[in-house]
Amino acid sequence: MLEQNLFNLTNPQKSIWSQEQFYKNTSLNNIGGTIIIKEKINFELLEKAINKFIELNDSFNIKLCFDNNGSIKQFFSNYIFTKIDLINLNSYDDLLNKEKELIENSFSLLNTPLYKFIMFKFPDGTGGIILIAHHIIVDGFACNFVANKIAYIYNCLLNKQEILPDYYSYKDYILSEKEYINSSKFEKDKKYWNKLFEDVPETVSLSTSTNTSNVTFENINSSREVFTLKNDLLTKINNFCNLYKVSKYNFFMAIYSLYIGKVNDVNDFVIGTPILNRINFK
């Protein structure tokens, strides 16, 4: 381990690592995605495409370790071709069950890959890939990125075309955050936020309980609610956002904020959003 260059975790990664200390050996920070290819698949080439993606994206070569002082660090391991398991599934229901099984398994976090790819094959020769990865190396957007890039590489291999290496390194983000923390802009931002929170706002939530114990949070199971907007309402929202030059994300966050304020009867409170100091496309 000592021969590797060790890097501090970035601030977003530190938040995720902190969560892990509260919910050890759980799947809380697992993120999953599935790519379905609706044509007969050359699984040998698909395995090569997955490996090429891993080789080109150093986020997938990140591993965690403790340094000699007991502080959590990360390092970028050398790429090694990985054998990708291929499983046979009989139906889409089987796929859903397999996804659930995989997403509920927790990762060993130290000195080991923080992702798992599984290829699957349906009886008609179609199939695809299941990806389960730890949140410390991916986010929801990354799953879409992974799907598009692997599909691109697979098609290049299938058609014997050149693979264009348009990839960025996570090391750049680590270094840019370090530069920011040592910059005058950081000092200016720090003064702004310290001034803003001289008086700490109330803590509010959707929960009406004030005596919740830690035991309540041992179960981390969750579910998703999906609401479909009618076209006429969606059109009104789009027109409103265009008129006032706001994104739909900010529009819904404003609605959410109004609701939180009313049900808790407070005017001064803060809602955190996952912007995480991302200042450019890279």
Key attributes of the depicted protein:
alpha+beta, two-stranded antiparallel sheet, 282 residues, 8 helices
Descriptive notes:
By secondary structure, the protein is an alpha+beta fold. The chain is 40% helix and 13% strand. A hairpin with a 5-residue loop joins strand 5 and strand 6 (127-134). Helix 2 packs across helix 4.
Helicity, as a percent range: 40-55%
Low-confidence region ranges: none
Beta strand % = 5-15%
- Give me the side-by-side strand order of the main sheet: 1-6-5-4
Biggest beta sheet attributes = 4 strands, mixed
Q: How would you describe the shape?
A: globular
Terminal CA distance reads 29 Å
Radius of gyration: 22 Å
Q: Give the total of beta strands.
A: 6
Order of helices and strands: HEHEEEHEEHHHHH
Mean pLDDT: 88
Q: Strand pairing plus helix content: what structural class?
A: alpha+beta
The number of helical elements comes to 8
Task: Chart the SSEs and their pairings.
Blueprint: H1 11-22, E1 30-37, H2 43-56, E2 62-66, E3 72-76, E4 85-88, H3 92-103, E5 115-121, E6 127-134, H4 140-158, H5 170-181, H6 184-196, H7 231-244, H8 248-264
Parallel strand pairs: 4-5
Antiparallel strand pairs: 1-6, 2-3, 5-6
Helix pairs in contact: 2-4
